[in-house]
Amino acid sequence: MRELQAGLWHWQAPHPEWTADQWWPQEVSSYALDDGARLLLFDPLAVPDELIELAADREAVVVLTAPWHERDAESLVKRLGAPVFTPAPDTADDLVQKYGISPDQIPSGWQSTDVAWLLTGDGGEAHLYAEGDRLPIGVEAFRGRAVNDLVLWIESRRVIVTGDALVDFGRGFEIPEEVLQHGVTREQLVEELRPLLALPVELVLPAHGAPTDRAALERALI
């Protein structure tokens, strides 16, 4: 774990569901931000003990850039009683749009398993958010790769946290071809992400890859 700014940390851990045929690297990134009252945990996996100890003196909050980035969210809810801010999981219509499959290929009554533990029964305190929302934790949501894969702007730190639209899979910080949705070109996604350049971003925190800077963001959106 390393401190990027006072009270802002980054660490990496091997994803437990990773397999050798995946197109994304096994090591994934997580972040924590201490704002004095809350400890925000972004896409958390294998949270270091030092941060778990700090959470005892803060209101711990889990923030997901995408519902499939739930990682260790469930165990943190049980351990810390943390509320979870997450985009909504995929619907059947999302599958049709994202992957170009026919509706009749989707089983009747299909539901995503992403954060299902959170949204059903007594799984925890859930807060669904979407593009354009200003969350009551000092975070604003911007369009990412899809309606439920977002980029988070933390104005107080001049930081963005990116989901799967902007990553470093070992080729440098970029929009990788692997994440493009059905019928969407890289050029189209670049246009969707351009509003990020109007923000005074200084630090970029990807879920895949190491933290980087505004220059890398500008290069990725050329």
Q: What would you say this structure looks like, in words?
A:
The longest helix is centred in the middle third of the chain and has 8 residues, at 73-80. This protein has one domain: Ribonuclease Z/Hydroxyacylglutathione hydrolase-like (Metallo-beta-lactamase, Chain A). The strands form 3 sheets. It has a 7-stranded mixed β-sheet with strand order 1-2-3-4-5-6-7, covered by helices on one side. A hairpin with a 4-residue loop joins β12 and β13. It starts with a strand and ends with a helix. The protein has 222 residues and is an alpha/beta fold. It has helices spanning 49-55, 73-80, 92-99, 116-119, 186-193, 214-220, and strands at 2-5, 8-14, 27-34, 38-42, 59-63, 84-86, 126-128, 134-135, 139-146, 149-154, 159-162, 167-168, 173-174, 203-206, 212-213.
Helices and strands, in N-to-C order? EEEEHEHEHHEEEEEEEHEEH
End-to-end gap: 31 Å
Tell me which CATH architecture applies here. 4-Layer Sandwich
Largest sheet: 7 strands, mixed
Radius of gyration: 17 Å
Low-confidence stretches: none
The CATH topology name reads Metallo-beta-lactamase, Chain A
Q: If you average the pLDDT, what whole number results?
A: 94
Number of helical runs?
6
Helicity, in percent? 10-25%
CATH classification class = Alpha Beta
In CATH, what is the homologous superfamily? Answer: Ribonuclease Z/Hydroxyacylglutathione hydrolase-like
How are the strands of the biggest sheet laid out side by side? 1-2-3-4-5-6-7
Number of domains: 1
Query: Would you tell me the structural class of the helices and strands?
Result: alpha/beta
Strand content: 25-35%
What is the general shape?
Answer: globular
Q: How many β-strands, per DSSP?
A: 15
